[in-house]
Amino acid sequence: MAIILGVGVKQIVAKASAYINGGNIIHRLPTSVFHLHSISDSAENDVDPKFFLKSVRQQSKLGFRNLEDAVSLFNRMTRMNPLPSPFDFTLILSSMAKIKPRHSDIYSTVISLYGHLEMLGVSHNLRSFNVLVNCYSYLGHVDFGFSVMGKIIKNGYHPSIVTFNTLINGLIHIDLLEQASKLLDQIVKLGFQANHVTYGTLIKGLCRIGNHATALTLLLTMQSGLSLSKPDIFMYNTIIDSLCKNKLLPQALTLFSEMKSKGIPPDVLTYNTLVRGMYTLRQWDDAKDMLNEMLENNIDPIVETYNMLIDMCCKHGKVREAEAILGLMTKRGDAPDIITYNSLLDGFCMCGQMDESFDLMNLIVKNGCMPDIVTYTSLLNGFCKCKKLDKAFDLVQDMRLRGLAPDVFTYSILINAFCKDNKLQFACQVIQDMEAQGITPDRVTYNSLLDGLCKSSQIDEAMAMLKGMTSSGAAPDIVTYNILIDGLCQVGRLEEAMDILSSLRAKGLDPDNYTYNVIINGYCKCKKFDQALGMFHDMHLRGLKANVVTYNILIHALCKENKVQLADQLIQKMKVQNLTPEAPTYISLTDGVYNMSLIDEAMAMLKKMIASGAAPDIVTYNILIDGLCQVGRLEDAGDILTSLRAKGLDPDNYTYNAMINGYCKCKKLDQALGLFHDMHNGVLEPDVVTYSTLIDALCKENRFEFANQLVQKMKTQNLTTATVTNDSFIGGLCESS
């Protein structure tokens, strides 16, 4: 029987030809030979051979739990006289090759035992050859598998589709997908009917390397009628799973619809795979719809399905929906595991619902689940977010009592929280506790401490800690140096910050946008604009693109110094670089124009801002209202105030105070008092500034009685009657006298 193979397969056969011609292919192979021991069994000779072989056949069909038991039976068979038939030996060796979990020792042993049979003169049959091909394929020696196929032909047998399926699987196992596809083409040309195993094996291999297009082509080939085999649920599930893993969810859903239209009902694996794909892409609504479809089709979700849905709900802040899914899960008789509980508990913690978190913790223990490190980490994060740091600290102690060892990640959460709350002494206490437990602080731990020290202006202590960090083996990264550079810039030690910047490349680190932004900000704070702009240009020379933050820092600083024209040039440069100015950018520019009393230019800037798509916020409008009031354009300011709610913005105290002050300056006290009453009738409460402005204006107009009523009202609202209020009365009385 002549077999014509593709070029790649020919090379494999050629490589193995020496073994084919040698006649004995077993002992030439680099297998880990299993040493056969002569087991002396006093009762062995008393057992009826027929009964023994019947037992071996039954055990082989049931399968073996371990290799040693199978080899022991095989050894007894080899000591029988006469020897059992090739069929019996093939049966036990075939069963041996299926022992789980699969590992190379099993296949090497089976090959060695076949060698032992050859020495005993036991002949091969087609099934035994196929077992050998399978063993070589799993060991990655597919070339020897082709050698065995040569032996099959030499011994007068015809390779079966099982032989070819095994070889195809072997080629796929060593990532020779192209050769596997060529082999499929060749066997079809030779008249073999590729079956479900053939196509399923190839589809699985193609999906493993992400070749979905070819896998789908094979599926179409099966559907076209060119193959007697039709696609089954396994093949669809394999491709859908691969598409989902590669985040190609739309294609997976298209295939899912096609599968249903062809009368192949999805199973729990199909649905679970799609839910996992939606989980990866955070498509909560689609995942919920998929759950409903499962339930409508009477398919019970597995625990993993529920876990993904609960986790998605919690990450979207929909904790109540997560609770409902947990209720559905328990109602349908599925027991939640620790992953289920951890997801829900994390959801409670993210929403700051710490009482619910503790109730759930008690339920976890009550239901026989043991809280793990993930459970405690979620609780720890929750307490730290709520600034309940004493409870967070106690939680770490509780972990130890439950036999759970806090790790560096656990301690780092606590240290970071203490540092952010400016409780550095407690952070240092945690460090000592951590080191006493034999846990070395890592880079993240040190970065949190350095950030805390820098934010509390303890720069020298931070610099000393950097040395300790290096000596402890925790290599500083760009984040570490950015923290230090920022700290130095905040206290005006720019020269030292620049020294660190200059040393970065020698340390193998590249400055990033954050590095430059903090230095530019430092120079701007010190009003060293030439140096700030020099750093801005240096960024570009070093291949870094200034971002919106960079521009905002410069524009804000320039506007504060009335360098509005230069700031406007930077906005134009932003647009050239396809950066969209944000509301803070325009606020700075509007404020700068306002400070220069260029109110019409400020109004024009507002129009530019709206035209660019950057939505002005209440701060922007407050600047304009204040500016208009300062120059007596109260009608224009009033128009803006009236238009705010139509724009979806609520006036705040600053808005009303600016308007009231404007009316008072123009001696329009009735309008000012009207706005004061509007504040009371709305959701805003007048503050000290509101009262002081009105009292001062009323006193200047000799309306002392009404001014005194406002003072009494301030007292009932527990507002301090500021010195300016008393000064207003004194000033007013002096003027009236």
TrEMBL record:
Which GO terms of type biological process are on file? mitochondrion organization; RNA processing
Q: Does the keyword Repeat apply?
A: yes
Give the CC-aspect GO terms. mitochondrion
A single Pfam family, by name? Answer: PPR
For whether the record's keyword set contains ATP-binding, the answer is no
**PPR repeat coordinates:** 125-159, 160-194, 232-266, 267-301, 302-336, 337-371, 372-406, 407-441, 442-476, 477-511, 512-546, 547-581, 617-651, 652-686, 687-721
Kindly state which keywords UniProt assigns to this record, in alphabetical order: Repeat
- Record-level Gene Ontology MF annotations: mRNA binding
- Could you say which protein family the record assigns here? Belongs to the PPR family. P subfamily.
Q: State what protein this is by name.
A: Pentatricopeptide repeat-containing protein At1g12700, mitochondrial
Q: Which organism was this protein described from? A: Spinacia oleracea (Spinach)
